[in-house]
Amino acid sequence: MTVVSTQVAVGEFCFDIQAEDDNGRTVVIENQLERTDHGHLGRA
C-alpha cells in the first residue's frame, strides 16, 4: 500500500490514514490504541 494522506477530514471527523493498494483501490486506516466501541466503528 501507498500512503496518500493522513488526518483526512470527513465531515466533522477525521480518519488517520488514506492509502491506495496495488490495484488503485482506496484503503482507509483508523488507528485505535484502546478498546473500540460501536460509536467509534460507526463513524468509520
From TrEMBL:
Protein name as it appears in the record: Uncharacterized protein
Source lineage: Bacteria, Bacillati, Actinomycetota, Actinomycetes, Mycobacteriales
Domain of life: Bacteria
